[in-house]
Amino acid sequence: MIKKLKIQIIVVLFLMSFLFGGFVNVAQTVKAAQNNATTVENDNVFRVGMEAGYPPFNWTQQDDSNGGVRIAGNEEFAGGYDVEIAKIIAEQLGKELVIVKTEWDGLVPALQSGKIDAIIAGMSPTAERKETIDFSDIYYKSDLVMVVLKGGAYEEATSIHDFSGAKVTAQLNTFHYSVIDQINGVLKQTAMDNFTAMRVALQSGIIDGYVSERPEGVSASAKNKNFAMIEFSEGFVTNEEDTAISVGVAKNSELTGKINEILAGVSQEERQQLMDEAIKNQPGTDTEQSSISWVVSILKENGPMFVRGAGMTLLISMVGTILGFLLGLIVGVIKTIPVPVKKARRVLQRIVHALLAIYVEVFRGTPMIVQAMVIYYGSALAFGIHMNPVGAAIFIVSINTGAYMSEIIRGGILSIDKGQYEAAQAIGMNHFQTMCNVVLPQAIRNILPATGNEFVINIKDTSVLNVIAVTELYFQTKSVAGNNFRYFESFFVACVIYFVMTFTVTRILRYLEKRLDGPANYSMNQMQV
Amino acid sequence: MEKIIEVQHLSKSFGTHEVLKDIDFTVKSGEVVCIIGSSGSGKSTLLRCINLLEQPTGGKIIYKGENILDDKHDIYQYRTKLGMVFQQFNLFNNHNVLSNCVVGQVKILKRTQKEAEEVAMKFLKIVGMDQYIKAKPKQLSGGQKQRVAIARALSMEPDVLLFDEPTSALDPEMVGEVLKVMKELADNGLTMLVVTHEMGFAKEVSDRVVFMDQGVIVEEGSPEQIFQNPTQERTKEFLKRTLPELA
Ligand SMILES: Nc1ncnc2c1ncn2[C@@H]1O[C@H](COP(=O)(O)OP(=O)(O)OP(=O)(O)O)[C@@H](O)[C@H]1O
Ligand SMILES: [Mg+2]
What we know:
Chain A is α/β, with parallel strands linked by helices. Chain A has helices at 2-38, 81-93, 104-112, 127-130, 175-178, 195-203, 214-223, 240-243, 255-264, 268-281, 291-335, 343-365, 368-383, 389-414, 418-426, 431-461, 473-484, 487-517; strands spanning 45-50, 59-61, 69-70, 77-79, 96-101, 118-119, 134-141, 144-149, 167-169, 187-188, 209-213, 227-230, 244-249. Chain A is elongated. Chain A starts with a helix and ends in a 12-residue tail after the last helix. By secondary structure, chain B is of the alpha/beta class. Chain B has a single domain (3-242), classed as P-loop containing nucleotide triphosphate hydrolases (Rossmann fold), CATH 3.40.50. Helices cover 37% and strands 26% of the residues of chain B. In chain B, α3 (97-107) runs parallel beside α5 (142-155). Chain B is globular. The model of chain B has no long low-confidence stretch (mean pLDDT 92). At the A-B interface, α15 and α16 of A face α2, β6, α3 and α5 of B. The structure holds adenosine-5'-triphosphate (ATP) and magnesium ion.
């Protein structure tokens, strides 16, 4: 029996080692991220935030070719027009350039909370944004275009009003989305988070077109043979501040003036040349391949990115689940302590219970993505505490899991027969000893399936943590897809990886349950006969 | 004989419901005392008050000359001196047979694992369960479970063993094996306080029988006295109901 067990353990370890392969890298990443955290006060760096997933302005690549710059706390590099501009600015400021890869919605909070010095991410200086941050002079100006399906009903459009009756959308929180209202009779769709999502929607026919800017349109139609870019003769009415692109800086920063000076030194020709090069260099191949060979080449080219993303996802969800479990255990146990006889202690217990109830209700009652934003950016804004993103992610997942687990554990404890407590007390155990030796082992065994559930949920839910600049699997996949424009294939790979992770975890826990239950039959103790 | 436990004016109420009223009685070393009485008369409550699974509302419980209801008294230490065997066995489901008998010794009496196992094996042998040490409670029959529960209580080497209807949850064919063990223990001079509906056992094994009704001790005396010459009307009625063959 023991031998069989050993073999099982080896198989499980082998399976896991595949997944944990990414851990070594993750460990380095975490270390790197910590280094970054300490450089927040360092004056010799120029920290620039961007999505690294919006070619030709910015994208993610595997090496430093074509002037790519290493992304902070990460094994990958960023390239594109924005990166070239950032390099020029950093050089003339006499500072070292640090690229911080951050989800679009996390950029402004990151700037406000001082996690980055500037946003160079193809961002337009809109009036709304100007209320919270300042902008430099314009460093690129482009026209609005529409990206549609090649051979579709709208390929020949010349006026925006040709899109009457069409399903059109644009990126959330951009002026692209508000100008859609200028089209008569348009079917304005819900705004989408990012270009990757819109391209997927377009390809699958969910939308007829999305509003974009010329450089993105050029590259989208160049890279994906199914897309065409419409340049309007009768186009959208736009403000200069909208079509223009500027560097975002913190309010009243002294950087603004310096950046303006530097930008003034970059001529119109030089800018156009940089943009042309960016469009030419952006990643992705135009070769026509079948989906299967695409999957293969995506794996070949971006394999390390996926593994690192998966490792990060696993690290956060595993540590988060374990810490959350312990937290839930403590809270659950405290909640089931019997009402004390002494009055003072009863009052104390009431207070503690009320605090715990608040904790549980707040964290169960709000989405994790919102908590992430509040905790990560809020702590920096309000208290000047700069958490390292991975640490913050683990923290958020842990307290979330803790809130759920505490109720599960409480239920598990309550499900244990009163006779078990009485028998333990009758031989002289106090409450703590009763819990440790009798009640909790049984309760934990009973709630193991629910714990596995939490773990699986965490693996999937960490995908929202990219808003605080954690490059987990979903974020990595979005970058890959944003670069190669093969959405279905890239997300298919991610899908398989997620499934392998959750499936392995479920199996391991099932195995653990069996171990805890012990053998189905007992053997007689022959020696004692 | 030395008094082990002395209960004085003990009372217990659940809310306004007075379940025990002014109970006085003692258990002496080496004695086997059986408590009989109709259902709801407060037998279990008395037993549970004695080892403080229920907090008495009034009175005293004197153990070795000290009132253990005093605030300062260490009730955990006191409980190790009283073994308890429950109607529903209440074996620790997460421990196997041996471990059920070992865990208390190691965690509370601070014996070493080896010592504890030796003690446990000694008592498991006495109850005839030494071959089943690896079994989990759910793999045992009711009679086997109760014998393990007795061994678990004995392993703590208490001064007195309390039994609350140890055979009431058993199928009739298993009652015998448990009673046999209990009789052996009694013969070996163990002090026992037994709540039971097994009148045969009470008659044969006990040194003293206590009859309870509606929260008071109505009558107590030797088995012969109680079963053959009860002085109280209520005792006579109870015996007529439970032992019609005597009438
Ligand atoms: N936790 C409790 N709360 C309220 N009333 C209780 C509680 N425990 C027992 N009682 C009441 O106390 C009285 C005595 O109960 P007890 O269990 O001591 O009787 P018993 O003599 O052991 O009866 P049986 O032979 O059926 O076991 C009963 O009326 C019962 O309803
Ligand atoms: Mg009872």
